[in-house]
Amino acid sequence: MMTKNLFKKPIWYLMVLTAGMLFTFTSCDDDDDPVLNDSNDITSFVFNDLSPAVSATISGTTITAEVPYDADITSLTPTIEVSDAASVSPASGTTIDFTNPVTFTVTAEDGTTQDYTATITVAPIPTSVITPVWERTLASGGLPEWFTANNDRDIAASGDYVYVHNNNDKIRVLDITDGTDVMVRDTVDYIDGKENYASGNLFLLGMDVDSQGKILASNLRVGSADQFPWYVYKWDNKDAEQELLINYPTPEGYRLGENLAVAGDITTDAYVYVPGSGFGTESNEVLKFSISNGEANNTPEMIVLDGITNMGNAPDVQPLSADADANLIVTGTGVGIREYTSTGSLVGQLPESLNDGENAPLFAFALDIHPFELDGRKLIATTATDFTANAADAGWLYIIDYTDGWENITADNVTRYAFTPEGNIDTNFNGTGGVDVIVNGSTATVYAMITNFGVAAFDVTIDQ
C-alpha cells in the first residue's frame, strides 16, 4: 500500500494550495458583512391610556391628535411604533407634557436620524344647543290669551300633549307638536281641576305626569288646625274624571304643593315627592310617598336634607330615576341647586363661584328643575328669574351640564335662553314656572313655562 505524503509534493503545489485557501476565507468574510437598516419612521402613535384610545395622524414628519376635553394634556403617555431595528426618543411609554409641540427623534439601525413634531390639542367642552320648536312667549310676540297675571305655575308633557297649570284650578292642554290649544271632552280647552273633595284657596299648583302619561296635580296647603289636607289628584287622560290619589293631613309648619314630582307608573309602583317648605315656613325635609300595586301609602317617608335648615321659597325636588334609592335634585332660594342621596346626604351643589352675572338667577330663584341624560351627558333643565327684582326684567331657560362633577361646573357648562325681550316690563311676582323633558335619541325636547312670560318647547342637542 502506498502512503500519501504532502511533504513529498513539489513546492509549487503547496504554494497554489495555500493561495486558494486564502482566497476562500477572504471571500466568506466579504459575504458575511451586515447591511444595516436605514429606516427611521414612526409608523403608529396612539394614546392607549385614554378611553377610548386616541390614534394620532402621521403626515410626513408631522403628528397631530385631538384628545377629549377632559384629558390632562400635561400628562399623556403615547405608545409609539417605529421602523424595524430603530429607536425613538422620548421612548414609547414615556409620560410627556404636550402643552407645547414635542419633538421625537427616530434613530435608524445605521445611525441616521429623523425628527417628528407631535402637536396635541384638546377638544372643546361639549355644549348644550337650545333651538326653539314653538313659542308662546313675550319674546316671540305674545302669551296665550288664557294666561293670567300670576297664577300659571307648572308644566308637564307626555305623548301628544303638554299640560300647563292655569289660574289655580285648570290644566290647559296643548298640542305637543306646535303648542296650540287642544279641546277637552270636545267642550273646553282645559281640564277642570277644581277640588271635588274639599274647598280651599289654591285648588291646584304642583303638577306632573307618570311614566304612562297619567296626569297628577296637587293643591297647596299650609299645615294648621283649620286647614284642609294636602291632596294629590290624578286623571288617566285629558278627558278622564278627577280622582283622589293621596290624602295627607299637612303637619303644622309645613307648606306642601309648591312643586310635585312622580317617578314610575302609579297603576303599579311609583313614588311621589314633594318638598316640605315654602313661603313663611322653614323645613329641610322632602316627603316621599310610595305607591305599590296601584295603592298609595298616605304616610310618607321623611328625607332630611343634610347641610341646610331651609329650602327657601317655592322649592322643587326631582328624582334621577324611578328606583327606590334614586338620588334627588333639589332647588330653592335657600339651596341653589343640589344633589342628595335618597337618604338626604349631600352629593354636590352648584358652585358659589357661578353666583354672578348671567348665572346669578340660578341662585336667586331657580323655579323648577328636571334632570335628564343626553348623549352620555348628565344635564339639568331649569327655569329661573331674578326674583329679587320681582322678575320684571327677564326669565330664562337654563341647561346645566354636571357630567364632570358638581365641583367642576363652570360658566362653559351652562346655556340659557331668554323668555322675554330686552327691557321687558311684565312681572312674575310669584317667581314661579315649570319645566319638563322628553328625550328621544340624541335630542331632548324641553317644555318650559314661566309665570306671565310664556310657554315654549325647545330642542336641546349636544355639540361635541
TrEMBL record:
The keyword Signal applies. Keywords: Signal. SUPFAM superfamilies: Quinoprotein alcohol dehydrogenase-like. Residues 70-266 form the DUF5018 domain. InterPro entries: DUF5018 (IPR032186), Quinoprotein_ADH-like_sf (IPR011047). Residues 1-29 form the signal peptide. The keyword Oxidoreductase does not apply. This is DUF5018 domain-containing protein.
